[in-house]
Inverse folding.
């Protein structure tokens, strides 16, 4: 349904042409993002897949509840991202672009950190009202998941800067490395320490991705 509506809107507002050079440029930009999206999927589900091999179904349920609650921060992250992404692309060639970015960054990070802090502070109460008694123990996993969600939010902020510079291959590499880190930590320590490892590895994986894109964007924009 969305595809039909989108095609209708595009057909009314776009001019269609076949330009092989433009198609090549588009594929060069977008194909690494496809690899990155697949790596994101692996990062998102690998911890629970590995958990299934080493912990009981009850522990897996606790982790799944904590993961869902912790990534509730995504409501703010995704909503804000949809708002600031077109603004950054629009102003990318302006002289005051960096100032615009820092203004958006302050507001965005304030929302993300405030939401994350609230979820951590009231995780027990949220679990009490949203789940049954057998899931209350999941609260001790929530802080690590929230930190992972915050790291993801910061990653997305800096990822836009790399997309503006058409460095999508680097984004793909960062996400792939994050997925490898997540899987590696889980395989090494989950059998002995259980679901807490999955929560920590998720945070470490997203933090690794964030550090990579932050360093790369700093290196580029500090030279401007």
């Amino acid at each position: 349904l969305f595809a039909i509506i989108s095609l209708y809107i595009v057909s009314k507002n776009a001019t269609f042409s076949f330009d092989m050079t433009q198609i090549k440029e588009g594929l060069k930009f977008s194909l690494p993002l496809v690899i990155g999206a697949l790596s994101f999927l692996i990062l998102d589900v690998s911890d629970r897949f590995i958990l299934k091999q080493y912990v009981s179904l009850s522990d897996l349920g606790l982790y799944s509840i904590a993961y869902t609650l912790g990534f509730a921060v995504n409501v703010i992250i995704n909503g804000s991202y949809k708002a600031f992404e077109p603004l950054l692309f629009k102003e990318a060639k302006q002289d005051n672009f960096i100032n615009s970015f820092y203004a958006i960054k302050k507001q965005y990070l304030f929302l993300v950190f405030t939401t994350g802090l609230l979820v951590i502070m009231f995780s027990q109460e949220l679990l009490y009202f949203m789940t049954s008694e057998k899931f209350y123990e999941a609260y001790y996993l929530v802080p690590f998941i929230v930190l992972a969600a915050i790291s993801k939010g910061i990653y997305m902020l800096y990822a836009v800067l790399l997309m503006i510079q058409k460095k999508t291959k680097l984004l793909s590499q960062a996400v792939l490395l994050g997925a490898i880190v997540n899987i590696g930590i889980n395989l090494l320590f989950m059998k002995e320490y259980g679901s807490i490892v999955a929560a920590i590895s998720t945070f470490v994986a997203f933090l690794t991705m964030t550090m990579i894109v932050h360093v790369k964007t700093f290196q580029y924009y500090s030279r401007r």
